Amino acid sequence: MVKKLTSTQFLEQFCTRKADSGFDPEVLQSVSAILKDVQLEGDQAVQKYTERFDGTTTDNLIVSEVEIQEAKNKVAPETLTALKEAAANICAFHEKQVTPSRIMAAEERKQLGQLVLPMERIGIYVPGGKAVYPSTILMNAIPARLAGVKEIIMVTPVKDNEAIAPVLVAAAEIAGVDKIYKIGGAQAIGALAYGTETITPVDKIVGPGNAFVAAAKMLVFGQVGIDMIAGPSEVAIIADNAADPAFIAADLLAQAEHDENARVILLTDSEVLIQLVEKELESQLEKLPRKAIASVAINGDSALVLTDSVAESFELSNAFAPEHLEIQTADPLSTLGKIKHAGSVFLGSYAPTALGDYYGGTNHVLPTNGTARFSSGLSVDDFIKKTTYTYYDKEALQQGRMAITQLTEEEQLTGHGDSINIRFK
Ligand SMILES: NC(=O)c1ccc[n+]([C@@H]2O[C@H](COP(=O)([O-])OP(=O)(O)OC[C@H]3O[C@@H](n4cnc5c(N)ncnc54)[C@H](O)[C@@H]3O)[C@@H](O)[C@H]2O)c1
Ligand SMILES: N[C@H](CO)Cc1c[nH]c[nH+]1
Ligand SMILES: [Zn+2]
């Protein structure tokens, strides 16, 4: 069953940095071969790998208008209502992130400012190997639309020539996706990055995926932007002895069912709570349809950690920097100041991670594997660029002339100085 660790063991096993990229060398090798092929052979290579890895053989990889209409008619009305409600909450939260272009300094003879410009075309990766993720479409496309992105292209794999899941088409329409391609894995990332005969290259690729997708995103970064390398799901729960063990076990299992490599952690100063959560995990796991995946995750890189105090639980959580952090202690809102690193925080017994995964309004594409120390979850900011501008008239430049030329001489870049001085001859 799940490992029980002391604080020291947790720090050693979960919070030390590794020297390598974290990617299996075989995965990196095969992904870089796939990317090279896609760059050279375009659609033909995309089709070859789609057939090999997904068993899908179509030579028409775009989802057609007819398929879209057929799919939409198959979605249950209550699913459509749920998608629209979730979309409204996500929209309401993210529209507050929109920042306008602004003038930062305006004097009579000069003006400095910052233009906020949307990206033209973005690609959204929607995972499709082990589950379908309509919620991920909303989380990626809604902030892009709010940022003003002109074209949103979505890719998602389908298995064995199956039709695309209707719920994905419905979510794509609600979120404002323009085109959908039935491709996944590294070949889809390559197609979005380099373009093919039928797919126009994008400026940035966002969205989560498995190790092949993540490695491909890492390798194409530089030619295109990427949001982050979002790995398998994680949750850390800080709880005291008053927390409900059934809630905690359910929240741990919810993230464990995503992936065998998911990491789920309880940090508590209560030995009794650990015992109760352990029992709950055993009984709840039995009833979980995705028991096979969740049980590998729970028994793998996951842990129940006994700490000295709630304060120490926060220290360990900050060292781990989890994707999701749940706080199930007395007066959870008052603990916000103790958080240094976490992708997204869920406060109290009635704000489980699943609330944010689907509905609350915050984004569920979040930094994993300790990267919350230096990065943030997906937001409108991921889809804009900030372009600064400067206006000076002759008199304003004359005022700065001496200082500029002094600095150009220090750097021995007198051509720079000349480009100032020539204006005053
Ligand atoms: N952080 C987030 O916001 C978030 C949200 C949803 C899902 N996730 C994570 O995304 C991941 C989804 O993974 P998935 O596998 O279900 O779907 P996926 O779409 O990421 O991967 C499936 C693709 O992998 C490729 N592939 C499979 N085996 C291969 C091989 N041997 N060689 C080369 N390519 C191969 C195939 O092309 C296939 O289309 C999970 O880890 C899940 O936890 C994260
Ligand atoms: N928990 C995932 C991010 O780690 C997001 C998700 C999508 N659907 C359900 N959950
Ligand atoms: Zn989830």
UniProtKB/TrEMBL annotation:
Give the signal peptide range: none
Q: Which UniProt keywords apply?
A: Amino-acid biosynthesis, Histidine biosynthesis, Metal-binding, NAD, Oxidoreductase, Zinc
Q: Which residues form the active site?
A: 323-324
- What is the required cofactor set for this protein? Zn(2+)
Pfam families noted in UniProt: Histidinol_dh
Please state what the protein is called.
Histidinol dehydrogenase
- Name the residues that bind NAD(+): 125, 187, 210
Supply the EC number(s).
1.1.1.23
Query: What the protein does?
Result: Catalyzes the sequential NAD-dependent oxidations of L-histidinol to L-histidinaldehyde and then to L-histidine.
Broadest EC class assigned to this enzyme: oxidoreductase
So what family is this one in?
Belongs to the histidinol dehydrogenase family.
Output the NCBIfam families linked to this UniProt entry: hisD
Q: Is Transcription regulation tagged as a keyword?
A: no
The residues listed in the UniProt record as binding substrate, with positions renumbered to this chain, are 233, 255, 258, 324, 357, 411, 416
> What domain of life?
Bacteria
Name its pathway.
Amino-acid biosynthesis; L-histidine biosynthesis; L-histidine from 5-phospho-alpha-D-ribose 1-diphosphate: step 9/9
Organism, scientific name: Terribacillus saccharophilus
Record keywords: Lipoprotein included? Answer: no
Q: Which CDD domains match?
A: Histidinol_dh
List residues binding Zn(2+): 255, 258, 357, 416
User: Which reaction does this enzyme catalyse, per its entry?
Assistant: L-histidinol + 2 NAD(+) + H2O = L-histidine + 2 NADH + 3 H(+)
Question: What does the note accompanying the cofactor annotation read?
Answer: Binds 1 zinc ion per subunit.
